[in-house]
Design goal:
Layout (H helix, E strand, L loop, with lengths): L1 H39 L5 H24 L15 H36 L13 H30 L10
Helix pairs in contact: 1-2, 1-4, 2-4, 3-4
């Protein structure tokens, strides 16, 4: 049962992460277009510039769980790198239970009023010619936290398998 939960959670993280990764290519192409229009043709567009910012936010916020799933996040591993797999698993479990999950739950809870206020007025850019979707951008905050909670639970379950000498859970199973 835990294996199905872990595979399902990691499947969600993988699909979202791989889809969002394509935004980096689009972001690069759009940035080149902005530079060409601005410096080559003297045409500026606040909406295009804000589009790049929106895509950057989506890559970072929606890709966080995918990065965590693949253990590619920033880790200060002065001690951790020398730990045994079982000790690493304990650190991951305790870190998930006492740091990651509470932080994500608190941040998601605290963002609800902030996001709701933005939706109530359908908040738009303060810049003339900017994008009218600030409320959608702010919605990424609780979505990011939900994705990290899902992946955090999967990581805890995976590490419990290591601690209790169960077969290590992987995405492929």
């Amino acid at each position: 049962m835990f294996n199905k939960i872990v595979c399902g959670a990691e499947g969600i993280s993988s699909v979202v992460g791989k889809c969002v990764a394509w935004l980096t290519l689009l972001m690069m192409l759009l940035t080149c277009l902005i530079v060409l229009l601005r410096y080559g043709l003297g045409i500026g567009s606040i909406a295009l510039q804000e589009s790049v910012l929106y895509m950057h936010a989506m890559v970072f916020m929606l890709g966080a769980a995918y990065t965590f799933k693949d253990d590619e996040h920033v880790r200060v591993d002065v001690l951790y790198r020398d730990f045994s797999p079982r000790k690493k698993a304990w650190v991951n479990i305790l870190g998930g239970l006492f740091f990651l999950l509470p932080f994500c739950a608190y941040t998601a809870y605290m963002s609800i009023d902030y996001v709701a206020a933005s939706w109530r007025v359908l908040e738009t850019s303060q810049e003339p010619g900017g994008l009218p979707f600030v409320y959608l951008l702010k919605t990424l905050i609780p979505i990011m936290m939900a994705l990290l909670i899902i992946q955090g639970i999967a990581d805890i379950l995976k590490n419990l398998g290591v601690v209790f000498n169960k077969q290590q859970l992987t995405e492929a199973q």
